[in-house]
Amino acid sequence: MMYEDLFYKRLSELRNQIPVSAREMSLAIGQNENYINLIENGRTFPSMSGFFYICEYLKIHPKDFFNDNIKNLPVNKWNIFFLFYQILQNQTVLPSKNNTIKNNQNH
Questions:
Q1: Is pTM beyond 0.85 here?
Q2: Domain locations in the chain?
């Protein structure tokens, strides 16, 4: 496997651990919405500054980006907050004690 392929695979692996869409990550680092997707699909390669923005977003040191012994990103409050936010975005009604009681009574 070539080094470029390893880079594309590693980026996808780390991004999916957050988890965040390629589009969301692209926009969060100030790029167009297809930026990360184009990198992961081997159609472009980031500049050095682009790579640093990617590492900063993933909260990983650039040297650790290439260390495949590191399988999981460090857990931090922003990753937890983001996961919680995504869960809430997928719910139409926020759970409450009253909703839980009503739902349990209907079953």
A1: no
A2: 3-106
